[in-house]
Amino acid sequence: MALRKEKLLANGVIAEYWKVDYFSVDVNSGILTCRLTLFKDAEHKDVCGGVNYSKEYTFNVTKQELSGDCHALSYTLIKGKNDPELEGSIDI
User: Is residue 60 in a domain?
Assistant: First the structure.
């Protein structure tokens, strides 16, 4: 599970593979925090720690939402943020 959307970095590298590589849950307060990290492409997602570009998101969620797949929920909530940087991204 990931998103594909090209981003031209300051160093001239084009990266396109956005992956939730971390999330944490505070069930008592209904908070889901996740980090979306950018990698050059799918082939490099497990080789290195990304291209030094990531975004962190915090969401208020219900206990019912937290009882499911929080990794998948992270992607759903991120896509719902209408982040211009991710506009037009493709689920992969």
Answer: yes
d(CA 9, CA 53): 9
pLDDT surpasses 80 at 3: yes
What is the spatial order of strands in the sheet that 90-91 belongs to? 54-60, 31-39, 14-26, 3-8, 90-91
pLDDT digits (tens, 9 = 90+) for 65-88: 988 899 999 999 999 998 999 999
Supply the range of the domain harboring residue 57. 3-8+15-82
Between CA 50 and CA 53, with CA 33 as vertex, the angle to 5 degrees is: 20
Partnered with residue 19 across adjacent β-strands are 37
Number of separate domains in the chain: 1
- Whether residue 26 is contained in a domain is answered as yes
**pLDDT beyond 80 at 46:** no
pLDDT band at residue 48 using 50, 70 and 90 as cut-offs: low
Do the domain assignments include residue 87? no
